[in-house]
Amino acid sequence: MAFPTRCLYGLGADAFNPDAVDRIFDIKQRCAKSPILVLIEDRLQLAYLVKRVPDVASKLMARFWPGRITIVFEAKDTVPLNLTARSGKIGVRIPGHHAAQTLVKAVGGPITGTSANLSGSPGCHRIEDLESQIAGQLDLILDAGNLAGGKGSTIVDVSAGKPKILREGAISTQEIMNFQL
Is the pTM for the entire model greater than 0.70? Predict the structure, then answer.
């Protein structure tokens, strides 16, 4: 399914269903070596996904969630291997858009939150811009109108303790590092 996130449309599926995750990889034509992040309802759902929540992650979540930042943790062994691309890590975010928050709550568990585009192509902030190649393979498209567009979430890996910026997005590297001082 396609659904709105804070600034772009995303592709969602049950994160604990390996076949559904494989379908997301197929639809996006995404390399199996690239993990897919998940969206959760609240921090309590981290218990199903991650081995531990470092103090720095708790601080980042308190400051920047919902939306704007994806935090990469050590994944629990129960997380599907295809979701993590066998990396042992999982990216997690609480969505910043009300519709996405409602969707995650209705599902009752983590859903994938990767952008609704072919891998390597720009994301879309209007359903009209959703590539027909993707739209034709989806069971559901939740149109919430035009989204803000712009940069996606900043991705911060905390699996080794100290935060490491993997992708600068809505939150600048400087803002994260200043916050950590």
Answer: yes
